Amino acid sequence: MSEFALHPQLAKDTFEITDWPLCRVLRMNDTTYPWLILVPRRRECREITDLLQAERHRLMDEISQASDALQRECNPTKVNIGALGNMVPQLHIHVIGRFSGDPAWPKPVWGFQPAQPFEQAEREREATRWQQLLASPQAQ
């Protein structure tokens, strides 16, 4: 895991929750959606196929763990999972809780409306909340 660095756009748009065996887990700084982002801590990784086979399996396990946590905590209508990379080339996976009444439903969240960032105290509470939720045995 040498020389991992988070892409500047991801660093700007998110805040850190925790590190799992493969991925750094981030929270999108947007109060509108429960939105986690998983970033494999691998240098110059752009595509899932850039990961070793065992890492791809680990990635799927970590995506499932994030999705399960969102479902348990937020009970969304649907969990959207995506790895687009059109704007940010560093491999990252969005895990987003969607609700039939959310502002973008049923369309994608990207570009629908500007992010509604957390205020600092709220952001700290949100980070602590997700750290606790993702520290369960399922997250290991």
From TrEMBL:
<keyword id="KW-0808">Transferase</keyword>
<feature type="region of interest" description="Disordered">
    <location>
        <begin position="121"/>
        <end position="140"/>
    </location>
</feature>
<dbReference type="InterPro" id="IPR026026">
    <property type="entry name" value="HIT_Hint"/>
</dbReference>
<dbReference type="GO" id="GO:0032259">
    <property type="term" value="P:methylation"/>
</dbReference>
<protein>
    <submittedName>
        <fullName>HIT family protein</fullName>
        <ecNumber>2.1.1.-</ecNumber>
    </submittedName>
</protein>
<keyword id="KW-0489">Methyltransferase</keyword>
<feature type="domain" description="HIT">
    <location>
        <begin position="36"/>
        <end position="105"/>
    </location>
</feature>
<dbReference type="Pfam" id="PF01230">
    <property type="entry name" value="HIT"/>
</dbReference>
<dbReference type="InterPro" id="IPR036265">
    <property type="entry name" value="HIT-like_sf"/>
</dbReference>
<dbReference type="GO" id="GO:0008168">
    <property type="term" value="F:methyltransferase activity"/>
</dbReference>
<feature type="compositionally biased region" description="Polar residues">
    <location>
        <begin position="129"/>
        <end position="140"/>
    </location>
</feature>
<dbReference type="InterPro" id="IPR011146">
    <property type="entry name" value="HIT-like"/>
</dbReference>
